[in-house]
Amino acid sequence: MTEATFAVLALLVLVWAVTSDLLARLNITGPLVFTVAGYALGNPDSSPLSVDVEAPSVHLIAELTLALLLFSDAARVNVSRLKRDVRLPGRLLAFGLPVSVVLGSLMAAWLFDDFSWALAGFVGATLAPTDAALSVQVINDRRIPLRLRRALNVESGLNDGIVTPVVTFTLAVAAGQLGIESHDGAADDSGGALLELAVGLIVGLAIGTASAWLLSIGSRRHWMSTGARRLGTLAAALGSFALALALSGNGFIAAFVAGIAFRAALDQDAVDADTAVELPELLGEVLALAAWFLFGATLVPIALHNFDLTLLASAVLSLTVVRMAPVALSLLGTGLDRRTVVFMGWFGPRGLASVVFALLAVEQLGNIPVVERAVAAVALTVFLSVVLHGVTAGPFGRRYVHLEQAEEDLSAGPRSRRPAQNSPQPPTPFRTDQP
What we know:
Elements: H1 3-25, H2 30-42, H3 56-76, H4 79-82, H5 87-111, H6 117-126, H7 136-140, H8 146-178, H9 190-220, H10 228-246, H11 251-265, H12 273-276, H13 278-305, H14 309-319, H15 321-330, H16 338-346, H17 352-365, H18 369-417
Helix pairs in contact: 1-2, 2-13, 3-8, 3-10, 3-11, 3-13, 3-17, 5-6, 5-8, 5-14, 5-15, 6-8, 6-18, 8-9, 8-11, 8-17, 9-10, 9-11, 10-11, 13-17, 13-18, 14-15, 14-18, 15-16, 17-18
């Protein structure tokens, strides 16, 4: 990525910051703006900027973004609050997510005859995690019941970390099936993938617990200056990711586990976790805008070059049946009405985690035709999700609130107007505004 590309990105972030609320009122999201800008300014066919999908800087930005968001999402989960209503997110993560992975894998194997089972599994796992940032208007709409918004937010925050081992495993197996060699000259295998996961788990636990312990001690003894808690938390997020990579482990698992361990081990009386995690979260959000720009410049052209009816059918099924059917099954017995189930099923947008996993496939498997086809299926699904979920978040949220309030008024109205039997009617009060 050149200096000119970096300068354009910085200026775009500035313009977005100035106009973000105005564009939100028009149902235009940041991911949509930066994806379109990336394609317009950075696509390889007709653009003034040069962005290469295989460039190390592109992969580094995308991977750092996901690591920071994994850490901050995990560290934001307040277990004590979640315990009050763990039923909905628990069902979505424990049942809906695995079913979505399996259903998406079967769909990919059915539509694409040349996909191996590992490559089909990669597509299914890559498109299973959701991204609440693409429907932030729904998450922030206080008129929508808190338990629904919390369920969607917690699901989005944790499902990408949960599905990362599956993505890593399927990529390793796909590399072996395709005869692709790793950097050390040996073909990748599932054993190596499991070892990476184990190293990432250990590193995440160690860094997350140790960093929380050190920050708690420093804060209690007044060793820390203003803002140092945020810097320490950022260092823990980046350090867990980098150390896991240095030890040939999985950096994403390390960052995710470090966030969970950090929140669990932190002394809440000494350090406020929500405040401490602000800096990694903010940096992750800025890098996410850059990642969406790179998505538009590198992966959207691949999707358009491979576009056909099969690819379109794959994207549409991923956003509807593959998402909504598992959600409906996981919510059986919860007492939620059909409107609410459909609402929660629709707002499962595919986002940044899927983009990073697609870039990992390019990095580890190369640009051979069958891999490019799989990447195109992921990229087209994410692009449609950016457009459809971004545009519908505001209107569908308002429509859901309106229908729920109308139904409540309809059911409560007659009872409130009907006088109780054998009870005297109160006199009609004199109103001065009557003619």
